[in-house]
Every structure is written in structure tokens, then in C-alpha cells.
Amino acid sequence: MNTRTDLIGNMVAEDFRTAAIFKRHGIDFCCKGGRTIEEACSNKKLDPEKIYAELEAIPKNEGSSIDFNSWPLDLLADYIEKTHHRYVEEKTPVLQAFLDKLCKVHGGRHPELFEINTLFNESAHDLAAHMKKEELILFPFVRNMIKAKISGSHLSQPAFGTVENPVNMMQHEHTVEGERFRKIAEITDEYLPPADACNTYKVAFAMLQDFENDLHKHIHLENNILFPKAIQLEKEFTVES
User: Fold this and answer.
1) Does a structural domain hold residue 219?
2) pLDDT digits 0-9 by tens, 11-34
3) Overall pTM surpassing 0.70 (yes/no)
4) Which domain range does residue 214 map to?
5) Are residues 182 and 149 in the same domain?
6) Is there a domain that residue 44 lies in?
7) What is d(CA 178, CA 123) in angstroms, rounded to the nearest whole number?
8) What is the 3-class SS of 32-69, one letter each residue?
9) Which of 9, 61, 96, 158 gives a 20 to 30 Å CA spacing to 191?
10) What are phi and psi for residue 197, nearest 5 degrees?
């Protein structure tokens, strides 16, 4: 890994431990992973040398980071669906109930809660549709490509034309969600509960932060690993035919 020339998304794909460093400095490694450190730092007026030093300090021989980049694409699709999609499905109704309660109890003193609630409900609606498109359209095609490659059989052209079409749509929707949660983080002062926060308030903000963190990893696995590899695999079939 050459930290001075590699794209941020590629660095995180190679070693997910780097994600914590980028997140600490407010650098988007998922939706905006197609930049170098220099480019990201220039936009945020950060010192790139400090980030280079932190990246170089990561232990070289540590096996705790899962190497998603080496996984077969069908396994990665299964993992995303059963881990991140399931997380969203399980946590969404809980968070919606907490935020509704906070608006009723604390909305008078903290009117920003209504905007947070609106933003999260928009996210819940859009993510549900987004995940279904992946589960019913994109992921099955990825699995079909893997089966065809293993068996050496013909790959039928999908109704959507090329895999780049749903990928472009998914990436756009990822960007929308990334911006939406950046707004939530800004309104909540990076998920810091106010001094008069009750336990529900504190738990809701902690869950929102966990939700965003999970979403970042979810988007990273797709934008930086699954999508580019699916596009490359489809091109291999084009060359063979």
C-alpha cells in the first residue's frame, strides 16, 4: 500500500483498520473514497503528513482485520445482506420508536429533534427500497456471474443491460444517505446528548451513531470492493464472448 498515491477507498479495502483514522479526521472513505489523502486534506484544510504518520503506525503483522477484499463476490454479497441489511431491518423500528418518543417528551425544549426524526424516517424509507433492489436485482446477478465463471457456462444478459446501471444507481443512493447522516451528525453535535438528556435520549443518540458507523462500513464494502469487482467480472465475460 502506497499511502501517498493510493485512493482512500482502496486503502480501506486493503485494510479496514485505516477506516478509524479517516473517520477520526472527518474524511469520508465510503461515498467519497475515490480521492487521495492529499485531495481529501486539501478540501478540509488538514495536514496530510499527520495522517500518513498515523497510517504508517498501524501494526503490519496483525491478523485482526478481516480481509474482505479477498472474499469471493457471492460470499461478500451474502455477508452484506445477512449482516448489514439485517442490522438496518432490526435497528430501524427501535430507533423510530425512540425518536418519536423524544419528539413528544423533549421536542418543546429541543426542536431540532423533529428534523432528526424526519431525516431518519426518510433514510429508513429509502434504505428499505435500496436494500430490496440489491437483494432482488443486483446480488442475484452477482451470484449468477460467479456460478457461470465456475461452471464455464454462458452468462445471460440481464434486463438492466449491464451491471454498471444498477451499480451507478446504488452509488448515487449511497451518496444521498451519506449526506443525510452527515446532516444528522451535525445537528446532534456528533451525537452528543444535551445536559438534560434522559436515558432514552442518550440511548437514541448512541444508536444513531452506531447506525451511521454500520452504514459507513456497509457502503464501503459495496462502493470500494463489491461494485468495482462486479463490473470487472462482467467485463471478463464480454471479453470471452
Assistant:
1) yes
2) 888 887 888 888 889 898 888 888
3) yes
4) 71-239
5) yes
6) yes
7) 10
8) CCCCCHHHHHHHHCCCHHHHHHHHHCCCCCCCCCCCHH
9) 9
10) -70, 135
